[in-house]
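W.,

You were right to be curious about this one. When I first looked at the sequence I had no strong expectations either way, so I just let the prediction run and decided to look at it fresh. Below is the sequence, 396 residues in total, followed by the output.
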Amino acid sequence: MRPSTPPLLMLLIVPAAWACTSPPATGPADGGAADAASPVADAGSAPADADPPPPVPQDAGPPPTCGDGTTPTILAAGGERTHGATMVITGCRFGDDDAPGPRLFDAVDNQPAYEGLSVGDVVPTDEDAPWSRNGSPWATEVRLAEEDARPHRAAFYRAAGGSHGGDGFLGWPRALGGTRPPADQLLLYVSWWYRPSMDPGGGEPEGANKFIRIWDNDGAERSYVSWTHMHIGYSGGERTGWRSFTQDGRVGRWNRMEIIVDAERGTVRHYVNGVYQRVSHSSVGEFDIDDYQKRPEFADLGLNVAVLGFDHGLTSYGAMVTDFGEIYIDTTRARVEIGDAPTWAETRHREIQLPTAWSDGSIEVTLQEGSLEGLSGRYLYVIDAEGNVNEEGFPL
């Protein structure tokens, strides 16, 4: 069971009958068009005290329905379009989830374990903290920071200073089993925001500088996925997938990073600012990673995040500052996003939302505006557990 995130602000109760239709129109303000043939009181022929004629029902046409298909369909979205408000999304083919919400949503300023800490304090890893590891003997300790945080956030993680500069990371979140992840934890979806002060591949020598490592144990041998500034390596594969972060990532700005590792399907997919990072190799050209394999000798262990941040071990990054935060980790692809374009393929800025209730016909989320600068006029997307999405966004 995955713990649910407690709902914030208000709950909007939606009648069950709306599960596959939108609410009926109540007039032009709700989208219905006025009937041109509607009778109008004639002031020249009717007595001054005559009762007005009864209103003529507005014809809004048949309500929308889900129809046939295999992808999620959104019919309505009720609630205020503001950060922190509750929105109820109704439609069909969302799938069921009896424990909605990510396994871990670490916005830094939402962690009780950090209460009482100040800017510059080392991120704790005691038993009440979300992460069980902070850096390594060669890495700078990750600390709390607040300078130029993303909108609606008061803090984030920072690695800076020392001979290795922005070399710092957190690892092995407790919510996902720490260094002993459960055996059935074979899929991880991880999303986070990352801001490097310099090109993460610009040091000399450049090395293989890791944004994230996904392992099944912290021993000398393991199943692994390692995403660096220039490539992605993984167990079971016969080739390394090459692609530079700076093709779609930006230095000095917040970048949305995402990765999905599925040990059962053998797939790895990763994204920078909404762009799928399709990798290449000299022997085959561009390819999709479909040959990831988890080592059979570790069948009693699932997957967890061993490293998240920036891990390199080089003194040539001494002046670098690494910022990261708003970390969302789940064991399903199912999620809700709000994007900047009317189709999923066109979106380049998306903000992930926090579900508090989820059924096949209704989802309740706590809205996260992030840096979208308003949610009205944006587009709503629901992704199901198989990765299917409504390609046409629902306008907000």
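Here's what jumped out at me. Residues 1-50 have pLDDT under 50 and may be disordered. And, maybe more interesting for your project: The radius of gyration is 25 Å.

Coffee later to discuss?

I.
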